[in-house]
Design goal:
Blueprint (H helix, E strand, L loop, with lengths): L3 E4 L4 E4 L7 E6 L10 H19 L3 E6 L6 H9 L4 H18 L15 H13 L3 E4 L2 E4 L15 H7 L13 E6 L14 E3 L1 H13 L3 E7 L3 H16 L4 E7 L2 E3 L2 E2 L10 H7 L2 H9 L7 E2 L2 H25 L10 H22 L4 H20 L7 H18 L6 H15 L4 H16 L3 H13 L2 E5 L4 E5 L1
Parallel strand pairs: 3-4, 3-9, 9-10, 11-13
Antiparallel strand pairs: 1-2, 5-6, 6-7, 7-8, 11-12, 14-15
The protein binds one RNA strand through helix 1, helix 5, strand 9, helix 7 and strand 12.
RNA sequence: GGCGGCAUAGCCAAGUGGCUAAGGCAGCGGUCUGCAAAACCGUUAUUCUCCGGUUCAAAUCCGGAUGCCGCCUCCA
């Protein structure tokens, strides 16, 4: 099966061929470490985590690089406000970032370079650009001469003249308003490094060119990031990298869509953001992942509590099936007769990984892939619901194995089903200020009433709990509960 | 102002020329159940924002309108 990837530059789905047989290099723009991450960052992280997992599941040896910007105006501002060093600020928020990512089940990249570790590479890159007359020093700064790079605008689909007409002048040091800083002379109290142009620090765009080249080479397979980075950040990266090397730098550009809140982009500047950790207090990390993966990575997603709750219900459906599967395979279904349903289910399960992989190969269509998953859920439930145990232990085991295998690619279903469902109940109960022990006490009372066939009493307790949002489910020998 | 994207059921969301327009959530009817819930079965868009056009054939391609969003300043 051939993998197709939508390339931002060509605006088409293209068949993906790694540069080197069996190996894939992927670079994703990470965060500027000056604050905790919000759900927008979570989307980018989860999307590229799943992309990387899928590439690996295809047998490729993936080198995944995601950087940290650890020197930047915002970091400097914050350090100043908090009367501490930029190193401390960056260190702190890198740690917070790593904590959030771990909680989200995002696998660590192969390399997580920090900008300040590649200053010599950046200085060399600037030197090459100046030598090629693509950059010019000016009073301790160095600027990229955008007009001298012929391909400028090829990623974002803009042309220089149009941009020039709308550009505003933000510095009189630049020859053209579109030129951007490769190196900034350090001002009083700012961090600096020695360079041929004096003490200063690197421009933001330069960092990614230097780091991607250092870890992945002049030309590499995939470069990713949020769609807000297309212009100017990624356009400038192309100008820098390709200007310096004369080679194509990135073969496939991949950009994820935004997380929105009430139809507006979630962002720091709008102030309409939710931090990852706040959301994870209210929802299981897999619910957040599932929510994000239910839409295609290039579409915008609208973030809301009700949307998360819908995702939560969907996850409960799958985990309930997985739990039933476990209960069943440990129980009397083990030596079942091989009925028609059994064969049907087995066939569907055999083809599920293929259908899943095909969806993923079609530009990482997780939404469709998840649809296939639910088809299988219904079938497995149907097989288990038949009166007689018509599903053989082999099929049950296969079902479990298949779901866990697919879960490895999506980063879902990693929990023990029973544990997941219990933690969901407990979390939801806590949100509503309900005590689990009290609920279970009432359920025990009701169970006693039911045994005595005191139905009125039993229903009274059930209604009382239902008013609080606690829904009961009577099993053969126990009553479980969930929250609406 | 320049450039670009999106519009599919009550809500979310796949599908980008031709089989019955996936799937989830919510709802309704049934099976099951002491009654429920869950699960299962059935059902919920003769139609894909609107108006034209191309085609034997369009949600899918083209033109126009309307609405929403993004980038052009830092931003995943």
């Amino acid at each position: 099966m051939a993998l197709k990837i939508f390339n931002t530059q060509s605006k088409k789905k293209e068949e993906f061929q790694p540069l080197q047989e069996g190996k894939v290099g992927i670079y994703v723009c990470g965060i500027t470490a000056y604050d905790v991450c919000h759900v927008g960052h979570a989307r980018s992280a989860v999307v590229f985590d799943v992309i990387t997992r899928h590439l690996r599941s295809k047998g490729w040896d993936v080198t995944y690089v995601k950087n940290f910007t650890d020197v930047d105006d915002k970091i400097i501002d914050r350090a100043r406000r908090e009367k501490t060093g930029i190193g401390e600020i960056a260190e702190r928020f890198i740690r917070e970032h790593d904590r959030d990512m771990a909680a989200l089940g995002v696998l660590p990249p192969t390399f997580s370079p920090r900008a300040t570790e590649s200053i010599p590479e950046m200085i060399r890159l600037i030197g090459d650009l100046i030598a090629k007359d693509l950059a010019y020093p000016m009073d301790g700064d160095v600027y990229y001469a955008v007009g001298r790079f012929p391909g400028y605008g090829k990623l974002s689909g803009r042309n220089l003249d149009e941009m020039l007409s709308g550009a505003r002048i933000d510095s009189d040091k630049k020859r053209s308003p579109l030129d951007f800083a490769l190196w900034k002379a350090s001002k009083e109290g700012e961090p600096w490094w020695e360079s041929p142009w004096g003490r200063g620090r690197p421009g933001w765009h330069l960092e990614c060119s230097a780091m991607s080249r250092r870890y992945l080479g002049d030309t590499f397979d995939i470069h990713g990031g949020g769609e807000d980075l297309i212009f100017p950040h990624h356009e400038n990266e192309i100008a820098q990298s390709e200007g310096a090397t004369g080679k194509i730098s990135v073969r496939y550009w991949v950009h994820n869509g935004f997380v929105r809140v009430n139809s507006e982009k979630m962002s720091k500047s709008l102030g309409n953001f939710f931090t990852i950790r706040d959301i994870l207090q209210q929802y299981h990390p897999e619910v957040l992942r599932f929510f994000l993966l239910q839409s295609h990575y290039r579409s915008p997603v609208d973030f809301s509590d009700s949307a998360l709750n819908e995702a939560r219900q969907g996850m409960n459906r799958i985990y309930s099936m997985l739990k039933a599967l476990k209960d069943e395979s440990g129980g009397n279904g083990a030596e079942a007769v091989s009925a028609e349903r059994d064969k049907e289910t087995a066939v569907q399960l055999e083809t599920l990984p293929k259908r899943f992989a095909e969806s993923m190969d079609d530009d990482f269509n997780t939404a469709r892939a998840i649809g296939h998953l639910f088809d299988a859920v219904r079938m497995i439930n149907a097989a288990m619901a038949e009166k007689k145990p018509v599903v053989s232990s082999g099929v049950l085991l296969q079902a479990e194995k298949t779901f866990l295998g697919i879960g490895d690619v999506l980063g879902l279903f990693q929990q023990e089903p029973d544990h997941y469902l219990r933690s969901d109940r407990e979390r939801e109960a806590a949100k509503r200020g309900l005590a689990v022990a009290e609920i279970e006490q009432r359920i025990a009372e009701r169970l006693a009433a039911r045994k005595a066939k005191a139905w009125a009493r039993a229903d009274e307790i059930r209604n009382e709990l239902a008013e609080k949002g606690v829904l009961l489910r009577d099993g053969p020998d126990a009553t479980t509960w969930t929250i609406a």
